[in-house]
Design brief:
Rossmann fold, 18 helices, 395 residues, Structural Genomics Hypothetical 15.5 Kd Protein In mrcA-pckA Intergenic Region, Chain A
Length: 395
């Protein structure tokens, strides 16, 4: 039997909190006595189609449990996503359709396997619709476990209540529903980011209310997004999806402010470059390591070469997606062309032209160059923003 104290110390070495003190070692001992693996739980609400680097911080911690022979229970929150986690929110989240949630749920499961081991004895994937699609009588029993006063102790709710900002009954239910997940799957441990502490502790209280042994809680730091300011989130537009193309992943990493690099090296467990390496080269090392982890070392080298060609040498990519001009259109209305080629709205396309963010064969289009002859566009490279390129051809 492995030294359980050492295992507990290893698993808690880089967490923010391990609650209660000594709780993980106690759960490891209980599981060993019962000759079973520990059940370590993580719930993810599929509110967006992709997992991002921020998710991988807690997924890597779960992988450590698996590597020690324990069983990870990954809960895809297809029902809690219909409510919307109020953690860190100053207002109610917009509702998602069931179809969107179901589609996102499938991609979450697939992408989680990029970090987690998939052996059946080490991984159990569940949807919380399995137990949260409950009879009204069961919901009444769940609601009786918690008081409104307990829920308003939550900082997010307290601030909104004091400010008179609406709080829906569904949002008040969210911590109970997440807590009931721990009851349903008999969790020994639950993991989450530091913004989830309230919800995780409700899981302990929920288990106690149902006469079960209480899970211990491990919270991990939140990875800062590419803006270097807020936590990584698709809502903030500062995320890097783990399935993004190598060039996008590399380029976005290089946009990270220097001050945030240390946290990324630490939380993403990337080996630090040698002493004396400057910020520019350190960030390139970080970007290569991230691309190599989710793609390959060859893809990382190609992504770096692609970036240098575009932004160091100021050249167009070697391979550019073609776009055919509309037949018979002459002159060509540039906002309409941008909308068709890149999927922007015409108003956004006009704004980009006005902002000097549109180039033709490397030259910035002037504001007045809204309509151009098709002969000038034929064979030219249209660039929108830093990374959008199309090779134009007449129909």
């Amino acid at each position: 039997m492995p030294d359980l104290a050492q295992s507990a110390a290893f698993l808690t070495r880089n967490v923010v909190e391990a609650l209660p003190a000594g709780g993980l070692e106690a759960r490891l001992r209980t599981a060993a006595r019962e000759e079973r693996p520990v059940r370590a739980k993580l719930g993810l609400d599929p509110t967006a189609p992709d997992l991002h680097l921020g998710h991988t911080v807690v997924l890597e911690k779960l992988r450590e449990f698996q590597d020690l022979g324990h069983r990870v229970v990954l809960i895809v929150g297809d029902y809690t996503a219909r409510v919307g986690d109020p953690s860190g929110r100053s207002q109610t989240r917009p509702a998602l359709s069931g179809a969107a949630i179901d589609a996102n749920a499938e991609t979450y499961k697939e992408q989680a396997f990029k970090v987690l081991r998939s052996e059946p004895e080490l991984l159990e994937v569940r949807r919380n619709s399995e137990w949260l699609d409950m009879r009204m009588e069961e919901l009444f029993g769940l609601a009786r476990t918690t008081t409104v006063a307990q829920l308003l102790e939550r900082n997010d709710f307290a601030k909104r209540f004091a400010a008179g900002t609406p709080i829906s009954l569904l949002e008040l239910l969210y911590p109970l529903l997440q807590g009931y997940d721990s009851v349903a799957i008999s969790a020994d441990v639950e993991l989450g980011g530091t913004d989830q502490t309230f919800n995780l502790m409700r899981g302990r209280e929920m288990q106690r209310a149902y006469g079960m042994a209480e899970q211990c809680v491990l919270t991990v730091p939140l990875l800062t997004g590419t803006d270097g300011l807020q936590k990584m989130s698709k809502s903030f537009g500062n995320h890097i999806g783990i399935t993004e193309a190598p060039a996008e992943m590399y380029g976005k990493t290089l946009s990270l402010p220097d001050a945030a690099m240390g946290q990324w090296f630490d939380l993403l467990a990337v080996e630090l470059p040698s002493a004396g390496t400057g910020p520019r080269d350190a960030k390139r090392s970080l970007a290569r390591a991230i691309v190599a982890r989710f793609h390959s070392a060859a893809a990382a080298q190609e992504a770096e070469r692609h970036f240098d060609r575009l932004f160091v040498d100021r050249k167009a990519p070697e391979e550019i997606e073609p776009h055919r001009l509309a037949a018979g259109e002459d002159p060509v209305h540039i906002p309409a062309l941008i909308a068709a080629a890149f999927g922007h709205s015409r108003s956004e396309a006009r704004r980009l032209v006005t902002a000097g963010a549109v180039r033709l064969d490397g030259a910035v289009l002037a504001r007045e160059e809204i309509d151009l002859p098709s002969a000038r566009l034929d064979g030219a490279v249209l660039q929108v923003g830093k990374r959008g390129f199309r090779r134009l051809h007449r129909a």
